[in-house]
Write a structure and sequence with these properties.
By secondary structure, the protein is of the alpha/beta class. It contains 21 helices and 19 strands.
Length: about 525
Amino acid sequence: MQTNPSQPAKPNVTDSDEAQRPAADVALQAAVGAGVEICFANPGTTEMPLVAALDRVERLRPVLGLFEGVCTGAADGYARITRKPALTLLHLGPGFANGIANLHNARRAHSPVVNIIGDHASWHLRYDAPLTSDIVSLASPVSRWVRSVGSAERAASDLIDAIDASVADGGAGASLIYPVDFQTGRVASSEHGEWTRQARFDEVEDAVVETTVERLRRAEAPLFLLGGGALSPSGQSAAARLAEAHGGVCYAETFPALAARGGGLADIDRLPYFPEKAIATLDEADLVVLVGAREPVAYFGYEGIASELAPAGKLHRLSDVSQDGASALERVANALRLPAARSVTSADAAPEPGPLTPGRIGDAIASALPEDSIVSAEGASCSYALYTASSRAKRHRIMTNTGGALGQGLPCGLGAALAAPEQSVWCLQSDGSAQYTIQTLWTMVRENLPMVILIASNRRYAVLQTELRRIGVESFGRAATSLTNLSDPELDWVSLARGYGVSAESAETVEELLAAMDRAKQSQQPYLIEMRY
């Protein structure tokens, strides 16, 4: 990673003053030439020249988020769908720090997100003004690439370098710190070659494909663990084809960035979250083929339970996240001369009537999803139930919380809706984690996005209560109850949503939920449904 190099300024250009433009304009215009289309912004004083530049630079859409975590989460969602870089515009170190949680998730999703972080004028930094901070140290853990602009003349080339870094090796975050005086300096327009940058996947080497073929020939119970591009329809079809021929099974990694589901695809569920179940699943295999997925490890460390969920000798990597796992799976299947994948007939997704439960919620949503929709799912019980049920739904894609930092679901859905306006975007969100970035509702209305927001409202941090039981707590005392309960006072989701301008209603039964989802699909604006259970 490159961090804050000291770079000499390029010689001053010789063009006349009339031919020169503010450096911020030139930098953003270069970004447009590189295929950047959107900038999720929560700017402050040191970004005002960039805000003014957005008025003058065409084809770069500014989107305001009321909180920096909304901006970074939306950039992640946009990048996951398009594989193109999405810009954020954030205010100094504290503003950037507000967005770090969702940049952590974006890093785990390998999303090409480029953060432009304003800074004090270079000559003002030595005075240690109240908002001065070590932005490089803040940005480094969530960025593959970090640099501070050293002069107005370098701003455009530095931003292009950031964009190029974000799309390399499967995608990553890049952060450019941009002092305000280097935004206003006038420079000549630069030529950076107008071609669209997009995260692409490298081809897997023939030798790796051949080794995989040989190991599969010797395996009796292989398991294919899929992530990244291997969760595309073609990747899942090829993996199912291999598993069927070799008596094996397929799983998606526990928290995939983007996975195709339903519409006749094989039912490839996620690897279980709790380590005991994941270990039991992996123990049944004599070979675990990793295709765009990380080595499986426990989400948390538990005394007496192995952190590595499968022994290293059982693991075989076909592709990493920067490689074309879907194509590699097809090459392996073809080398083994396997027949084409069988078509899968989707089962009836009709939900059981009655009071809402996580399983019934999953079945109901699966039955209601439109063709070619996108789901941003964050939460525990209900999002798992939906993922399992979604194999019976119409063809769609699901994004999950890749890094575990809460508050991703609503912003990620917002970014997806802006990336794919022709598709229906649904957010399935737990009530507790929704509060981290609830301001997203305002931006959904402002951008006129007809999204469906489903709040799983059990009025508690259910996963924390499960973890308390895992450490042997049978009866919750005052502290355990207070710190995991959201019912005193209850959140009034309908009023909260309407306060942001979102139409809303509550449902407590499957019948009510199905009717509410029908109304939401007919609405031409954001529509929130509280699902109480």
